[in-house]
Amino acid sequence: MAIRSVSELVEQGFKVIEKEIMGCTDCQLHETVTNRVISKGSTSPKVVFVGEAPGKNEDESGIPFCGRAGKNLDGMIEYMGLSVDDYAVINTIKCRPPKNRNPLKCEINACKPFLQAQIELLGPKVIILLGNTAEKAFCNGEKLDWGVPRPVDGKYTLLKIYHPAALIYQRSRIEEQNSLIDNNRHLWE
Ligand code: URA
């Protein structure tokens, strides 16, 4: 039987979360997915980056941010001065929406227990929300300002910055993104 309570998932650990994601049929995306995309990076990171959803490359490989947006994310991580042990990368939803459309609210909600359990087990100080979809999963309809940190219950700090894919076509945004990062270095340094 599927485990969907966050506390049970956390108790059972990463392997069971992975198994549950692999077998999940809680939204329509399981009908079109090739590979479910779970995470990459450290299992005890200071910083967790939360993307939107797998794209074509990620659906083919099962690895988050392995395409063009991933190159920009790597550049951001380097600019932040993080080493491989310092960070992990996950997505708001684990299955690719057809034609890369935005995830639906019901899809975000179906995947939320996995996201919450991943965050609890990873236990980061800082959660970087890469754009609006990740914000939806964490902020219950409230909008955060770009680059303005939001501490949450003494557990972690949320920081919303631009999604790396938004930097592909708007190169001018890179400087803006870098200044959002510069203003917040104290969070992870
Ligand atoms: N965009 C995302 O939000 N996540 C990925 O894994 C790839 C592209």
UniProtKB/TrEMBL annotation:
- Residue ranges of every copy of the Uracil-DNA glycosylase-like domain listed in the record: 38-185
InterPro entries with a match to the protein in the record: UDG_Type-4/5, Ura-DNA_glyco_family4, Uracil-DNA_glycosylase-like, Uracil-DNA_glycosylase-like_sf
Checking Pfam families in the record gives: UDG
Query: Which reaction does this enzyme catalyse, per its entry?
Result: Hydrolyzes single-stranded DNA or mismatched double-stranded DNA and polynucleotides, releasing free uracil
What is one GO biological process annotated to this record? Answer: DNA repair
Keywords from UniProt, A to Z, are: 4Fe-4S, DNA damage, DNA repair, Hydrolase, Iron, Iron-sulfur, Metal-binding
Q: Which GO terms describe its molecular function?
A: 4 iron, 4 sulfur cluster binding; metal ion binding; uracil DNA N-glycosylase activity
Locate the coiled-coil region(s) and give their ranges: none
- Report the EC code(s) recorded for this entry: 3.2.2.27
Keyword Acyltransferase recorded: no
Q: Which NCBIfam families match?
A: UDG_fam4
Membership in a protein family: Belongs to the uracil-DNA glycosylase (UDG) superfamily. Type 4 (UDGa) family.
State the protein's name: Type-4 uracil-DNA glycosylase
